[in-house]
Amino acid sequence: MRRTLLAAALLASTAANAQTFRWANDGDVNSMDPYARQETFLLSFMANVYEPLVRRNRELKVEPALAARWEQTAPTVWRFHLRDNVRFSDGTPFTADDVVFSIIRARSQGSNVAGTLASIKEARKVDDRTVDIETHVPNPIFLEEITGIGMMSRAWAERNNATRSADLTTREENFATRNAMGTGPFLLVSREPDRRTVLAPNPGWWDRPEHNLQRVEFNVIANDATRIAALISGEVDMVYTVPPQDTDRLARTPNLRVLQQAELRTIFLGFDQMRPELLKSDVRGRNPFQDLRVRQAVNLAIDRPAIVRSVMRGQARATTVMNGPGVNGFVEAEDRVTAANPDQARRLLAEAGFPNGFGVTLDCPNDRYVNDEAICTAVVSMLARIGIRVTLNAQPRARYFAEILGPRYQTSFYMLGWTPNTYDAQNTFFNIMATRQADRGLFNVGGWSNARFDELTTQMAVETDPARRTDMIAEATRIHLEQVGHVPLHQQTVVWAARTNVQLVQQADNWFPLRYVRIAN
Question: What is the pTM of this model?
Fold first, then answer.
């Protein structure tokens, strides 16, 4: 009775101070399916509706969520004991059947998050409240890997013919693309793609609400000036993507505040190194990017400090490695940013047989990363100095990802960003840099491949000795640097802006958990 009275009092207090929270971003979520894309913004947004077995708290530490506790019954078996009395927002109970179904669905055709679960061999129901998940080999970072995998209702998916994820790379849709039903702190009220998505609190959520929101309106405002004007005028309460050029002005604006910190994401360029002839180039009969000297020339031509200074307005950290500070395995000694050297780049191109350069298309998003199109525009100019004639193809994220991440990887030269959701270097190695094979290398768009690198990536996934694992990561980092597998540019800074009466938690992985948002009267 005391617990019931306390819960009622808490709900009454929260309701008395309930608020509408309106926020904006330059691009949309693209799908309500939590497995549709391995992208921070989509995963973060849908985590408000679909919850994982274990989640991250304010300090990014792993804590219980739908699993109340867990243990390892064997080196490769994790036993999860599900939280009692958890229900989906339609009132149906959350059970082990839903966990097994969700893991199968997340690893099946159409899902874009299968690589995250590549270490899983099988998920087995022990009883309604207990699940065993077996991995192929011991996995020391397994809990970190599953923090972004939300659980779905098997019955809901079967009832609505959504038992597999619709493949966004082919622009496929099913019921789960525009609808959602989970156990999380919020439920989906309405969905208008590329315009507005509305959420409301889940009255049956199992956890204690820290937010005081009664309605959440997410608005897509693609134009930077319009988005910032909406914040200043009070039309929205928070902006998720603040253009660097507006940061100082917003910081000086009454009743607004700017929140910023270093992000774990690395922005980089990649090359098609698989095809014998590039899809989007004026070179016939060969692929320039298969020549190490050409990749070295591109790397030497890029003036990273200039991009940070002029394009990012200082809100980034120039880098030459794919994992930055804050990621376990960051190799500071290898991260040596030197001045651009166009003269040496031109000599390398000439040695490779391209004394007059060549033409190629650079594919780039224009609403995904901070100043993404402006970064690509700067790269076009820098490469022009060494004779590489770049045509910029900048597109909204939905079309961009469908093109470069589709079954045939329709690109020759591209920009991408990656945040390792485990905060560990192996995640980047496995997903972005390892040779494409089954679930491995799903985002290795250009197909860079090195046998020793692959061997190290596999070994470090099961190595439990910290010193040996650190050595493996350092060796793999050096191999990638020497071979110029990609061209890292910078780690961007997370910059949000909000009204001063809005309390929220900004995290280094750029996730935005609405369960922490409160609005003062």
Answer: 0.87
